[in-house]
Amino acid sequence: MLILALDVLERDVALDVARKCGEYVDFIKVNYPLVLSAGIDVVSELSEIRPVIADFKIADIPYTASLIADIAFRHGVRAVIAHGFAGSDMLRAVRDVADRHGGEVYAVTELSSQGGREFMTRHTLEIVDVAKEVGCDGLIAPATRPERIAEIKKRAENLRVICPGVGAQGGRLEDVLKAGADGIIVGRTIYQSEDPARTAREIRERIDGLMK
Ligand code: O7E
């Protein structure tokens, strides 16, 4: 699975990159930089090109989390990303909203950055357990630490594990897939390249070759 992290700031650029790369990616992940600069309607427009994962990093009290998830699904997204550290009550609230819309929920385990180690790593496997209990569809795990992906995947059982941090953050595609990831999230390596479509196609081909 290849997920394009579309962290560009302009609507037209986002739609252009999405159209060019669409056939090579399974999902487009939309994060705050794009929505805060281009407006939420860009999510609906992108959803017409490829299924969108709304990466609004939901981490709030259950009520507010439900509102955020509901807005995302009403704009046509297929899935939302919520922070596991916010706890089971919030994940359950987001799961309920997703169920009403026939959507999916991914829970973040530990961030791929150095800071992800400061607090989150200690609780990662507990977060995996909670995500399983709540019935999340998948987990976000750090491509920068393949040894962690392997642990998370083992504990995750049938939850999908998708990993940001390949390329710009130093993670290597081969290591990540070997560790058991079901997919990778790639942003800058694709949208900042000279030819995003070609780069997306090359990554897709490498994934298909390695996952055969
Ligand atoms: O480094 P890039 O440019 O390939 O982009 C990576 C994207 O994944 C970017 O949108 C970033 O916000 C996101 N991400 C991480 O990089 N690390 C994480 O641990 C988690 C995410 C993410 O998508 O999860 C949502 C919190």
What does this structure look like?
It comes from Geoglobus acetivorans. The active site is at 57 (proton donor). Substrate binds at residues 7, 29, 55-64, 112, 164-174, 187-188. Catalyzes the decarboxylation of orotidine 5'-monophosphate (OMP) to uridine 5'-monophosphate (UMP). It catalyses: orotidine 5'-phosphate + H(+) = UMP + CO2. The structure is a single chain. This protein has 212 residues and is of the alpha/beta class. Helices cover 47% and strands 18% of the residues. It is built from ten helices and eight strands. It has helices spanning 11-21, 32-38, 41-47, 62-74, 88-101, 124-134, 146-156, 173-178, 188-191, 196-211, and strands spanning 2-5, 27-31, 52-58, 79-83, 104-108, 138-140, 160-164, 183-186. The chain has an eight-stranded parallel beta barrel, surrounded by seven helices. Strand 1, helix 1 and strand 2 form a beta-alpha-beta unit. Helix 4 (62-74) runs parallel beside helix 5 (88-101) and helix 6 packs parallel to helix 7 (146-156). It is globular. The chain binds 6-(ethoxycarbonyl)uridine 5'-(dihydrogen phosphate).
